[in-house]
Amino acid sequence: MTKRWTTENIPSQRGRTFVVTGTGGLGFEDALALALAGGDVVIGGRDPTKGAAAVDRIRSVYGQAKISFQEVDLADLGSVAAFGKRLAANRDCIDVLINNAGVMTPPERRMTKDGFELQFGVNYIAHFALTANLLPLLRRSSVSRVVTLSSIAARGGRINFNDLQADRTYKPMPVYSQSKLACLMFAFELQRRSDNADWGLTSIAAHPGISRTNLLHNAPGRYSAQGLIRSALWFLFQPVAQGALSTLYAATSPDAQASAYYGPTGLGELRGYPGEAKVPPAALEHHVASRLWEVSEELSGVRFGEASPSVRNLLAAM
To answer: In what order do the strands lie in the sheet with 202-206?
Structure first.
């Protein structure tokens, strides 16, 4: 692969449809780069005002951008299903899904609308369900990819089946690490199941190193210990556009491999240009990944390969 891969190395994406969760930070940079490369990009987020602002910013850079916003609240599986239904009604296929949006280390345990611990629910379960809902559209593409965002925090994670929702003990960083390990395991397990069921997907994981996003300001709070570190030591965090390169490489490079994991190649994978990332040993435990998948289907009420009736009917009518 190119040693200093940048957005200049992105091939033309004309004729390809992308769905990216998250309207700010990494999601915005993903959408901007893909639109500049000629892609037709849908960004999903829960705040229509922020979504409209992101679309306007991208069009101010590239007036001919094919960019649109669709509302989706990842803390509400009903909203995730509705998002999938709208996309099925308006799109013939999806070429690339980027499972990007997330929440990081809220100081107190919070819950999604469906009763999941917020980090596990938003970072992992919602994207698990979203991928399942969009599977019929992904399968309609001849070269579909699913890119799922993990984190260097996954190195310290473990899947605690006895307390997945942190009902007994809530510690923000271990719970975040578990959610991001789950995302990484999902990316690998999705490829295995796609190969077995002939879904035709290429599933890839990526992480952004330590990037100058607002995650630490939004969840722990600007004046929390983590938020103050983010503010005072901002120079240690790489620019968001640099952090997005690993995701963009996974989403667009002809050299990106199925079941691979990409991240920055600098010291400790904290910053730098994209390359192969070190996979935590826990992410390679196939029996744990298989069990997590089955538990996730039960928790989310979504089965892969079984579109919801509304989505199935829409696709059949096309």
So the answer is: 66-71, 40-45, 17-21, 96-99, 145-149, 202-206, 261-264, 274-276
Set out the domains of the chain in order of their start, with CATH numbers.
11-213+240-317 (3.40.50.720)
pLDDT tens-digit series, residues 73-118: 999 999 999 999 999 999 999 999 999 999 999 999 999 999 999 9
Burial (CB count <10 Å: 0-12, 13-18, 19+), residue 233: exposed
The answer to whether residue 176 is catalytic is yes
Give long-range contacts, CB 8 A cutoff, 24+ apart: 46-51: 46/71, 46/72, 46/73, 46/74, 46/75, 46/79, 47/23, 50/23, 50/24, 51/23
Report d(CA 51, CA 247) in Å as an integer. 20
d(CA 252, CA 275): 14
Q: What are phi and psi of 67, to 5 degrees?
A: -140, 135
Entry pTM: 0.91
64 DSSP 8-state letter: T
E strand residue ranges, 36-106: 40-45, 66-71, 96-99
List 176, 249, 261, 262, catalytic entry: 176
**What one-character DSSP code corresponds to residue 238?**
B
**Angle at 79 (CA atoms; ends 313, 221), nearest 5 degrees:** 160
* CA 142 to chain centroid: 21
The count of other CB atoms within 10 Å of the CB of residue 174 is 17
